[in-house]
Amino acid sequence: MSRTPALAGFLRTLERAFTTGYRWIAGAFTRSLQFRIVVLTIVLTMVAIYGVGTYMSQQIARGLFEAKLTAVSAQTAGYTAELQSLSALDDDQALAEALNTQLRSMLSRSPTPLRSIALEPQERSASVPPLLTLVSGEESIPVSDLPDAYLAAVDRAGPGEQLYQSVTLPDQSPGLVVAQQVAIPSAGQFELFVVAELQEEQNTLDFVLRAMLVAALVLVVLVGAVAWIVTRLVVVPVRTGAEVARQLADGDLDQRMPVQGQDEIATLAQSFNDMADNLQDQITRMEQLTVLQRQFVSDVSHELRTPLTTIRIASDMIYESRDEFDESTSRSAELLQSQVERFEVLLGDLLEISRHDAGAAALDAKPTDIGEVVTSVLDTLSVIAAQSGTDLLLHAPSSPVMAEVDRVRITRVVRNLVVNAIEHGEKERIDIYVAANAEAVAVSVRDHGIGMTEEQVEHVFDRFWRADPSRRRTLGGSGLGLAISLEDARLHDGWLQAWGRAGEGSCFRLTLPRRQGQAITSSPLPLPPADAHIQGTSLVAGPSTSDGSVRIQTGSIPIVVDTSESDHEAE
């Protein structure tokens, strides 16, 4: 009984070892080009050797057999002629002894190894009985044990016709039987059966097969070694090139491939290095150009501060005295005031984006109620929304939604999103959602206006890009608002994502970690939004993650209550 658990444990160990080996081979076959080429080369070589070896062994076996058959057939024909030339005897016993002596003589002087010679009368009532002569100490197959179909064919054979049959001798060695009818004077019609051994031919064939097997093993090893060496000469430079390309992609532009020799691989390496040199030069020039461009924007923005301040003071004085002017001059004063304000916004955005580009943007993160931030933004924009005929509806939890954020930056992001929604909302309702989970808080602004195409979604965060440049803007804007908002979200290690579909409106979702330095893997709000009619795939600018729940709060902003969500929470 103790052997059964031990055997089961051994089988389990063997199965695990087999599974591990199979997985290793499959993984190496998938990952390594060199291993794959060597394995395929060895397998194809083995298939070719098997096919060629099978064909050659068959041809050699056929040749040996036919040579043996020709020799035995010639001997059988000679034996037939000898028996037919015997002198006629009247005494049956003397005739039987003479035939037996003749058979022994033929067997003893045979140049080909024979096992036996048998003489069978066609008529069972013949005066001469069946005769059989054997090699001393050997066994032969009796004529009665030969296949019936073969014996019947021998009975029907014509004069001089020979029939052969492959047989297995009693000692399990291969043999060959050749039969021919013979007419013996004064004795009648007989059938001569000559049984020859094929052991020498079998030994020769076995030797050839062993030699072919050894040659095949040596050839497989040599072909595998050649394939390994040749593929290594190619794969090693490819691996080196892949590693150098990876380091270049990581920013190490000084890496180059080693160039050895003057062959095709060396030419490829030199071309790769030339490409890397050109790429490095272009990147260096682009970096220098980018630095100069950023410096130019920053310098211009700062230099414009002083004259803009002077212009603003003068504009304020003119604007305050506009009632003393005629109607045309008063309108010009108002226009000047609005454009100066717009110029200030643009200048502020340029300074802010230059700080982000220079890496000088600082984050003043403190525990903040995101719901209260959103409410205060909506309160400041409620007059503008009312003037445009747009309803702002807030969906938020009743409890505070706390997160460590820079209040000024998040307020600016939310204001940009809501202002964009009012601008493109076509006076339709705008839904603002606030939600949270264990790791993140989220704010999404959903409008039901003109929406965006997939091409517009791809460029919505580009600087100075507008979906419709010809569209009249009622709230101004520099074209940098969403770009700055995206940088503010990244500064918080958060996401700012956009979705839109033409005719169905747009949705912008801001997702922020609750604590600074905490990684977020999902958002508590869905994107695309839950009320979107989506057919097929839907493009989202940024990583698309999870869906979430909608809750409510009371306050000065109109509320939409989702009772089904509350019931779900109660469960």
UniProtKB/TrEMBL annotation:
Its EC number is 2.7.13.3. Its main location: membrane. It catalyses: ATP + protein L-histidine = ADP + protein N-phospho-L-histidine. Residues 299-516 form the Histidine kinase domain. It is an enzyme of class 2 (transferase). One of its GO terms (molecular function) is kinase activity. It is found in: Cell membrane. The keyword 4Fe-4S does not apply. Keywords: Kinase, Membrane, Phosphoprotein, Transferase, Transmembrane, Transmembrane helix, Two-component regulatory system. CDD domains: HAMP, HisKA. Residues 232-284 form the HAMP domain. SUPFAM superfamilies: ATPase domain of HSP90 chaperone/DNA topoisomerase II/histidine kinase, HAMP domain-like, Homodimeric domain of signal transducing histidine kinase. The chain crosses the membrane at residues 33-52, 207-230. The keyword Phosphoprotein applies. Pfam families: HAMP, HATPase_c, HisKA. It comes from the Bacteria. Signal peptide: none annotated. NCBIfam families: MtrAB_MtrB. This is Sensor histidine kinase MtrB.
